[in-house]
Predict the 3D structure of the following.
Amino acid sequence: MSAYESLAFSYDSLTQDIPYEHMLAYMEALLRRHGVQPQSVLDLACGTGSMSVLLAKRGYQVLAADMSEDMLSMAWEKASELEENRPYFICQRMERLRLPYTVDWVVCCLDSLNYVTNPEDCRQAIVRVFQSLAPGGVFLFDINTPEKLRGLDGQIFLDENEETYCVWRAEFDEEENICYYGMDLFQTEGDLWRRSFEEHREYAYTVEQLTQWLKEAGFGIVEVYGDRSLEGPKPGEQRVYFFAQK
């Protein structure tokens, strides 16, 4: 089963600890630091739309894109509760991104770029983002570092609530440079439990690779920061943020 096909309907309940508001506050701090005041934004790989809705509540004009129809269905339902300024959702892959108009800002959160496991597709996604930005526009995203992904090898994780029981098993393939997450998901259906299996994959991109591709795409300013830090990454950093300006 493809990634997020079954997980979409349990994603929010299993990820209640994700600090979306703190993430947005950090990204806005980076924008202020560089004197950028965006009006429109694309939430790329928006998932169930938590960040999209938060951006809309902040007053941004929001486009949101994801390749999963199931995740977008959950996002649309969430956004429908807004009385005004609802995000506009589109189903697109990153490497095929094509917007109806350019935006001032593209955000791509929660290591979504790692999920593009073909390096050429990742490079093409960066090009498409550059083309989607207005002059002076900013691409802000985070990745799991190779150090983190390699460190997950052999690890087992458990998430559960009253309706879902989820077991993750991670394995890093050095030859493919990919971390595989095998996920057994048990979800309630009346008095019974339904079991499904999904496989998630993340490619271990280096800071140097992504910096080169961003510059080749045409970004004039490329800066890398530690996890929600205003300083550069420290040795062994598990997550880094990229700020790239057109």
Notes: The mean pLDDT is 92.
